[in-house]
Amino acid sequence: MKRTKYTAEFKLEAVKQILEKGHSATEVASRLGVPVGLLYTWSRKLKGPDEQPIEDVKALQAEMAKLKAELRRTTEERDILKKAAAYFAKVSE
Predict the structure, then answer these.
(1) What is the dihedral of CA 22, 25, 26, 29, to 10 degrees?
(2) Which of 7, 29, 35, 59 minimizes the number of CB atoms within 10 Å of its CB?
(3) Quick one: 41 and 57 in the same domain?
(4) Residue 3: inside a domain
(5) Cα separation, 2 vs 18, whole angstroms
(6) Residue ranges making up the domain that contains 91
(7) Are 37 and 72 in the same domain?
(8) Which pLDDT band, with edges at 50, 70 and 90, does 64 fall under?
(9) For residues 71 and 78, is the Cβ–Cβ distance under 8 A?
(10) What is the 3 state secondary structure string of 1-50?
């Protein structure tokens, strides 16, 4: 059985039909005469490592919550210092 080689442009256009235009992989595969599994392989490769493991997402969410709390505390400290500076500016006049 002869193995068919597909160009990068062909692969990209086939995957675009699935991802961007919303066609099903089965429909695109039958229309183009390509095995469905091959389309899934191309789409996985072209998508890249966008999806992160759940552990990484949870760690990022925890870090974000910590940073938000730190930002809130720092903002409160800044506001207190502004008020103190304004008060002492009035008192020293």
Answers:
(1) 110
(2) 7
(3) no
(4) no
(5) 26
(6) 52-93
(7) no
(8) very high
(9) no
(10) CCCCCCCHHHHHHHHHHHHCCCCCHHHHHHHHCCCHHHHHHHHHHHHCCC
Structure confidence at residue 75 as a pLDDT band (50, 70, 90):
very high
pLDDT band for position 50 (cuts 50, 70, 90):
low
Residues 75 and 89 in one domain: yes
- pLDDT value at residue 69: 97
The pair of three-digit structure tokens given for residue 26, joined into one six-digit string: 């089965």
Q: What was the pLDDT predicted at 49? A: 64
Per the CB < 8 A criterion, the answer to whether 42 and 9 are in contact is: no
Looking at the 3D structure of the chain, how many domains does it have? 2
Residue 2 included in any domain:
no
Whole-model pTM above 0.70? no
- Residue pointed to by tokens 């392989």: 41
Q: Are 54 and 79 in contact (CB under 8 A)?
A: no
Contact 35/6 with Cβ under 8 angstroms?
A: no
Instruction: Give residues with Cβ within 8 angstroms of 6, minimum separation 6.
Output: 34
